[in-house]
Amino acid sequence: MATSMRVTQHLWFEKDMDAALQLYTSLIPGSAIHASYTLPEVPPPEGCPPGTCKVAEFSLGDQRYMAIEAGPLDPFNHSFSIMVEVDTQEEIDRLWEALGEGGAYEPCGWLKDRWGLSWQICPKKFGEWMTHPDVEVRRRALAAAMQMPGKLILADLEAAVNTSASA
Question: Considering the entire predicted model, what is its pTM?
Fold first, then answer.
């Protein structure tokens, strides 16, 4: 059955949406802001004066998003996060520093950016290890990640995964 449905994640920013989208799209290859506009003077959400609500359509890599800047509603929380899978420690470090600046670094590769949005910065190999047919590989990868107090360190994860069960 063919469908014409599109699925797009939607983010609500209290303020500074433009700065957030500029940062996000500058960090992730294949990203762009496709449209940005201010809603006309119609009854806006509470706390957003007429003519001040901004909307943007953008993509991060191959994922579509919309964003609105319309004053306070509900803050971002861990129940929605953006996971970025990368190949190298250098990419982990670059994204970790840029996205975490002004935010909060958290254990196990999680951080909150200065707008409160949660991110997971992970090596692509981690996903491979978590779906590995050997349960011991999955266990060692997860145990190593859970012990990391901040960003994931690829070399340490690889060492844990490659440790023999008899060692």
Answer: 0.89
